[in-house]
Amino acid sequence: MAAWLVEAWRYFALSPRSRWRQLQVLRELDERLLRDVGISRREAIAGRPLSDRQWETCEAGSSHMNDAVAPKQASHPTIAPRVRDSTDADLPAIQRIYAHHVLHGAASFEEEPPSVAEVARRRRDVLGRGLPYLVAECEGAVIGYCYAGPYRPRAAYRYTVENSVYIDQDWHGRGVGAALLAALLARCTACGCRRVIAVIGDNSPASVALHRRLGFRLIGVLEGVGFKFDRWVDTTLMQCDLDAAR
Fold it and tell me: What would the pLDDT profile of 41-70 be if each residue is shown by its tens digit?
């Protein structure tokens, strides 16, 4: 955990222009998200381990600290979703989940949600390349999905893929993302992939923590490369080496 936090602090230092915005986002994380990525609220706010005395000093130095660290939502138990190959019948749920992220977040840089037909076309392209396209379900309902696509079109990149993971808005922080990403990495390994690249929009602290938990390491931050919701948006690049344990 200490090593993770040191790297997290370096991550903030890489992007000083947006550092305080990122810290504000960390303060607003609810308890279920923090539990999902395995860090405490104290560690999330500070970006590094703090002793009790150091934490008390931080609290004393901000009149708004107590409001900032107050849980925003009630916690929910972690679940063990069923992760399986996607089917054509899953497409409406996949489109609905993705449309919410397009319209309300910067995880995707698309600005208009694609239709079900377009989502189906993209899925066929992924499967046609022999790559995985998975869904997570609970009690028969699709609550998240993930897939691996080509990182770049040129042939020299053929052993490197880019991963995408999207969770239903009502199921964040309950272990769905971790279950999906773990299954995706296993399938990518079986497919002969060597590297998996995560391109994380808006430097999402929860997504960065999730990927690190599953073995990704920070590569760097691209500042202001996207423009969405009338603001410039960064992306974080992370990499998982699937052949490291071979």
Answer: 555 544 444 455 554 544 444 333 333 333
**Residue that is last in its domain, among 69, 96, 111:** 69
Tell me, yes or no, whether 246 lies in a domain: no
- Written as six digits, the tokens of 40 are 């405490």
In a domain, 221, yes or no: yes
Q: Read off the pTM.
A: 0.71
In a domain, 76, yes or no: no
61 & 170 share domain:
no
**In which residue are the tokens 């749920």 written?**
93
